[in-house]
Amino acid sequence: MLTGLAAPAGAGILLALALVTLGAVWPAPRALTIGTAGLLYVIYALRHVFNSRSSQHTTVISGLQGGGELVPALLLPLLVLVQLATGLAGAPSSASAYDVTSNLLLLTAYAAFFAFACGSTTNTRVFHAFAALLLLLGTAEGLYGLLNLLSGNERLLIYERWAYPHSATGTLVNRNHFAYLIEMSLPLALASGLLFAPVQRDTRRSTDSEATARRIMAVTATTVLGLALIFSRSRMGIFSLLAAAATIGAASALLRPRVGGRSRKGYALPALLVLALGGFALVIGIDPVLERFFRIPQDLEHGRLPIWQAALAMWREAPLLGHGWGSYESLWPAWAGRPTGLHYKHAHNEYLQVLAEGGLAGAAVVAWALWLFGRRVLGALSRPLTHAQRAVTVALATGITSVAFHSAADFGLRIPGVALVFALVVALFVRVTDDPELVDRA
User: Fold this and answer.
1) Given 3-state DSSP classes, what are the helix, strand and coil percentages for the chain, each rounded to the nearest 5?
2) pTM for the whole thing?
3) What is the torsional sign of CA 107, 108, 109, 113?
4) Helices (H) and strands (E) in the chain, counts
5) Residue 187: pLDDT over 50
6) Can you give the pLDDT at residue 199?
7) Domain boundaries along the sequence of the chain
């Protein structure tokens, strides 16, 4: 059974499997990813059934304290089931039943993995192990993407790159999806390296040399992740993380209980890190990155706007329940307007795609999930937290907020590898806001 650090190890196997297969976007790795996520949850549930004194129904969902964040995750698969049951999927104007069923399995796997991660995080050791897993995966992806870019290697593992040349993308095809991973990892790396208090082991504090070594490793990881985000050349990824950091940082400053004066010494290292990132970026060559920002008006006019308009047109045809989850790719040609020679699988706006595929019902579920998140952020940041607890809470909230912003212009959460990492980040955020002492309990 999954005990101790076996849960993070199992999660690591699942996430590594999903990421090294280019995000598990192909049918075979996708099926393997879904099966592995389901297996992890079954083992977790059986462990609680046999080890807990409470009823079986309660134990299967144990560990999910607080505001019921699992409910929206379960409502999306339920909505897809309704679409299948009503015959909406498979109708001439909607996606095939096979496409919708495939997406139903994916949504169920995400909910199962979220429940597994949230319920398994029961002590500080496991929480730290899950956080370390996120940092390890993010740093490995960032380092691989940077090395490929700097060496001029236009391959993705064993595959010839067929899109997004001269960009850092890690083991993913799309630079924007790679940016999603960095957005979730970089704030946590910054928090662990610059803001964590020394970890207690039994009755002895870590030695200064151990604390210094951890900080050096975390600063190195932060530098790698920062450069990887810049040279992903993902405009929305860079903007989203900056906007999310400003939003959550301002909320923390405004809501933080006032206790005496505030020290400014904690701002020196982040400022130096920003300068170092800027220096490295200039040495490598930042012109191609800046050039993409100057092309935003043209890319909006000829790229994003037409497919966003198509998504809105689809929604008007089926406003309540949508056309079926996963239907955008098959339906887009009918609403494409003038021919462009391009075929889009997604709306490049998660919220508009949810409207088109899930109608107002799907949009209501997403809006509820965002409201639950906002309520947790405001409640957590209003509490008198320790320095480490606030740092980790802000870092996780920043990553989630950045993904929410980025999803207004892309579809990274439709990539299984990215969506599973996001589910883990949300699970850790739920647990740390339920029990902040998970961060630094002795």
Assistant:
1) 70, 0, 25
2) 0.90
3) positive
4) 17, 4
5) yes
6) 45
7) 6-256+264-438
